[in-house]
Amino acid sequence: MAARLKLYNPPAEEQVPAPEPDVRVRLGDLLPLFAAAQRMNYVWLRDFLDDEVVITSDLYEVLQAFRDNLPTPA
Q1: CB atoms inside a 10 Å sphere around CB 34
Q2: What's the confidence (pLDDT) of residue 68?
Q3: How far apart are CA 22 and CA 34, in angstroms?
Q4: Residue 42 falls within a domain, yes or no?
Q5: The pTM is what?
Q6: How far apart are CA 62 and CA 56, in angstroms?
Q7: What's the total number of domains in the chain?
Q8: Residue 62 and residue 44: Cα distance in Å, rounded?
Q9: Distances (CA, A) of 10 to 13, 15, 70
Q10: CA nearest 56: which of 20, 24, 33, 29?
Q11: Up-side HSE of residue 47: CA atoms within 13 Å toward CB?
Q12: d(CA 11, CA 61)
């Protein structure tokens, strides 16, 4: 049986705030990497699931429309 990794969660007063994002990357460069990480179930991807991203309003509208028109699972 593989050993389980235990993570240390420091008390709130010891936690350092995350740095502000300062790197711009094309969505087209990110999508294949995210898709591969998701498909291969890389654990590190879960570390970033609560991170916020900034997108343009037109992309947001397209994503909203896409989500609203997805078929419901059976």
Answers
A1: 13
A2: 92
A3: 19
A4: yes
A5: 0.61
A6: 10
A7: 1
A8: 28
A9: 8, 6, 40
A10: 24
A11: 6
A12: 39
**Nearest to 51, CA basis, from 23, 11, 72, 12:** 23
Please give the chain's pLDDT, 74 residues, in tens. 566 777 777 777 766 677 777 889 999 999 999 999 999 999 999 999 988 888 999 999 999 999 999 988 77
**Within-domain flag for 39:** yes
How crowded is the C-beta side of 16, counted as CA atoms within 13 Å?
A: 3
Separation CA 39–CA 41 (nearest Å)? 5
Determine the 3-state secondary structure of 63 from DSSP.
helix
What's the domain range around 45?
26-51
Q: Which two tokens stand for residue 44?
A: 């590190």
Token pair in block for residue 16: 């350092």
